Q: What sequence folds into this?
């Protein structure tokens, strides 16, 4: 018992050395026994407090669940750590507990059961290939590669099994169209085989990120607004929206125009700076990576394919969050403004095209809409306005009308469940018009109507004989002559002059819908 009572106390505690404590007797010994007791108690409390954290954060103390990633340490270690997410809205309601983040949000994906420190690719879609990398991922700019560095034990197992994994992906959702896919850079994904320590040092991290990487392309057809959203931003959002902006966009074919034009949308996808993968020669390190994007259909989000059942309305909400300023605090003035909004006439936006598919009697259509009861806003497509200005204009519209074309993609800015969209479909483009904008508009909760242009309303009636299949039977003409006819004649060589008496009925239905929506507010 006497021996066990002689606990070593570090020098400096209570102003006495260890020898002083053991040599002292009487009251002093009792006094220092008290100090020893509190010292041991403090040590025990520290162990109880910090050991669980060490066990959670230790790279060797747990195994990452399949399909998950963990962010890297802030030290020079290449072993990633488990993701820690704060509580509240940003944490998905997990109350601040440690959690692992799922990279693949797709239901029934073959990559939902991927092993840790591996690469998994889903190539089942006719539109796109998507690959996932779980673990310590590093860029290699010289070869446009992403390198996966497993922990050393995994590397030894890999060496014994004689396996070395490599995948190649062109991250653009039109893989069925070889012409454009050949222009999209190919990204190599490799699991690094066991190497000498000095070789691993060659890939030392220059920039460490605490969020996974999404590799997407700003090339392809994305100079066109429709394709920028259909091939770019919407598939990217579908792929990473569950990460709630905790993702880094690694962009191929990056250019300043793209970044400036869509800056708000980019910020809606990610809280981090964009990485230009083709020109940034630094080694970037990530706790995981997604290469390529999911594609559900033309401007479509299929909730049945997502674990969290998101819809196109949720994508619209992302745009609203990106473009809208926070609403002012409720005051008497805002209440008066709301009353004034109730009393004002419904607002109709008319998309005014230049070049082809122009409404040749647009001024008369605007006057007609005004006589029906609309306040009319002519929305010029070539006026150089930023998308934020377009968003503000369309947000104020109760109804939108325009001829089929890329600018109708801005229907995504209309208010879901309240606004209406009328698409004017020229000769030869009716099925395309309905698929491109009609179906997704209806899924977003817009009242949709398609105005089918008749031969007499088309400028093609002035170029072709009345019995020519081009105007008399567009479907037959397209079967005989294919896409070239569609692109050259129906899309590239046609304007419309609307029958005002006929179009008035369409406008009247749009106006009645707008009034009903006002009454429901």
A:
């Amino acid at each position: 018992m006497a021996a066990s009572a002689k606990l070593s106390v570090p020098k400096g505690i209570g102003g006495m050395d260890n020898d002083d404590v053991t040599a002292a007797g009487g009251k002093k010994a009792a006094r220092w026994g008290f100090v020893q007791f509190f010292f041991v108690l403090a040590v025990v409390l520290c162990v109880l407090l910090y050991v669980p954290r060490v066990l959670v954060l230790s790279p060797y103390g747990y195994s990452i669940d399949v399909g998950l990633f963990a962010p890297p340490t802030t030290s020079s270690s290449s072993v990633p750590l488990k993701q820690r997410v704060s509580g509240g809205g940003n944490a998905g309601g997990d109350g601040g507990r440690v959690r692992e983040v799922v990279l693949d949000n797709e239901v029934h994906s073959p990559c939902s059961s991927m092993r840790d420190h591996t690469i998994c690719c889903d190539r089942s879609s006719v539109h796109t290939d998507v690959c996932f990398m779980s673990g310590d991922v590093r860029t290699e700019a010289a070869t446009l590669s992403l390198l996966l560095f497993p922990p050393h034990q995994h590397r030894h197992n890999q060496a014994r099994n004689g396996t070395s994994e490599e995948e190649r992906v062109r991250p653009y959702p039109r893989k069925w169209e070889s012409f454009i896919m050949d222009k999209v850079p190919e990204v190599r994904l490799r699991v690094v085989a066991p190497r000498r320590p000095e070789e691993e040092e060659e890939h030392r991290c220059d920039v460490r990120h605490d969020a996974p990487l999404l590799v997407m392309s700003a090339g392809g057809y994305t100079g066109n607004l429709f394709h920028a959203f259909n091939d770019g931003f919407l598939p990217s959002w579908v792929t990473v929206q569950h990460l709630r902006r905790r993702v880094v966009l690694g962009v191929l074919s990056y250019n300043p125009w793209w970044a400036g034009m869509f800056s708000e949308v980019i910020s809606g996808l990610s809280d981090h700076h964009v990485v230009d993968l083709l020109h940034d020669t630094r080694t970037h390190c990530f706790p995981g990576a997604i290469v390529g994007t999911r594609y559900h259909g033309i401007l479509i989000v299929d909730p049945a394919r997502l674990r969290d059942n998101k819809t196109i309305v949720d994508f619209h909400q992302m745009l609203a969050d990106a473009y809208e300023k926070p609403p002012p605090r409720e005051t008497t003035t805002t209440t008066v403004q709301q009353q004034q909004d109730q009393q004002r006439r419904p607002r109709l936006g008319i998309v005014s095209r230049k070049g082809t598919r122009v409404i040749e009697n647009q001024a008369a259509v605007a006057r007609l809409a005004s006589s029906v009861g609309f306040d009319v806003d002519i929305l010029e497509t070539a006026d150089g306005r930023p998308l934020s200005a377009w968003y503000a204009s369309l947000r104020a519209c109760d109804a939108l009308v325009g001829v089929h074309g890329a600018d109708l993609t801005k229907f995504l800015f209309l208010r879901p469940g309240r606004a209406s969209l009328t698409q004017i479909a020229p000769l030869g483009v009716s099925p395309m018009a309905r698929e491109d904008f009609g179906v997704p508009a209806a899924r977003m909760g817009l009242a949709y109507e398609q105005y089918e242009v008749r031969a007499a309303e088309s400028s093609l009636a002035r170029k072709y004989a009345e019995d020519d299949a081009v105007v008399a039977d567009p479907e037959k003409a397209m079967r005989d002559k294919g896409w070239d006819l569609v692109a050259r004649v129906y899309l590239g060589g046609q304007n419309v002059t609307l029958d005002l008496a006929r179009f008035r009925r369409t406008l009247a239905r749009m106006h009645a819908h707008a009034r009903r929506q006002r009454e429901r507010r």
Summary: Residues 346-520 form a domain with the Rossmann fold fold (CATH 3.40.50). Residues 90 and 102 are 15 Å apart (CA to CA). The chain has a mean pLDDT of 83.
